[in-house]
Write a structure and sequence with these properties.
This protein has 214 residues and is an alpha/beta fold. It has helices at residues 23-32, 43-48, 60-69, 72-82, 92-95, 201-212, and strands at residues 13-16, 38-40, 51-54, 87-90, 100-101, 114-118, 131-136, 138-139, 154-159, 161-165, 171-177, 179-187, 190-193. It is globular.
Length: 214
């Protein structure tokens, strides 16, 4: 059941609960910047939200299957594409915005013209999968999401797959881990970060606060 909790601006922020990890850490990170949010796994709450956070750690195909099972796929499309509500995907949550993924060969939400592909390193001694730890991001265009964040700021990553984005205008940030990959996206009201802002200290808190204040 949706709790009647709102942040100071009265926006209702819903963290979509579709059975993956990192929900609690995202909520706690928001609380640290004095922003309240709610978990929900119902279509009605997604449609009622002012802003949506799509977190996630896990398997792409299983995550999409769970969204379908919960009846959230259509609600997310209606809220994001129809009502154009701001949405922030985190890690797997951003990957789900692509057309498809190599992980299980599953179809995604299709909001971004991209395919999720696995790291394939030539220097396997130096570069390991999953990519875990701190790495720099380089901002490629002006964006409210990265306002106040230094170009080349470091964020925390934990992933084996990344977005191969077909339209470069959708790329917000890039990161190099042998391969230069898209580490954040922005397309109209759709935002996504491959890194974990909830684990990235001050730069991460700034990204979350920027999203909330949109």
């Amino acid at each position: 059941m949706l709790l009647s909790i709102r942040k100071k601006s009265s926006d209702l922020i819903v963290i979509v609960d579709y059975g993956t990890g990192n929900l609690v850490s995202v909520k706690r990170a928001l609380e640290r910047i004095d922003v309240k949010s709610v978990f929900s796994s119902t279509a009605a709450d997604v449609l009622r939200a002012d802003k949506i956070i799509l977190p996630g750690v896990g398997h792409f195909g299983m995550a999409m299957a769970e969204l379908e099972k919960l009846g959230l796929r259509g609600a997310l499309d209606e809220a994001v594409l129809g009502a154009r509500k701001p949405v922030l995907g985190i890690c797997l949550g951003m990957e789900l915005m692509a057309h498809r993924s190599e992980e299980g060969g599953a179809e995604g939400l299709g909001w971004i013209n991209a395919e999720v592909v696995k790291f394939n390193f030539s220097d396997k001694r130096r570069y390991k999968s999953p990519h875990m730890g701190w790495n720099r991001t380089f901002v490629k265009k002006r964006s409210g999401l990265m306002r106040g964040v230094n170009n080349s700021a470091e964020f925390y990553f934990a992933h084996s797959y990344y977005l191969n984005v077909q339209d470069s205008s959708d790329t917000l940030c890039e990161t190099k881990y042998e391969t230069l990959f898209t580490s954040a996206i922005e397309k109209d009201n759709i935002f996504g970060v491959q890194f974990h802002p909830e684990k990235s200290h001050d730069p991460g808190r700034r990204v979350l606060l920027n999203f909330v204040e949109m």
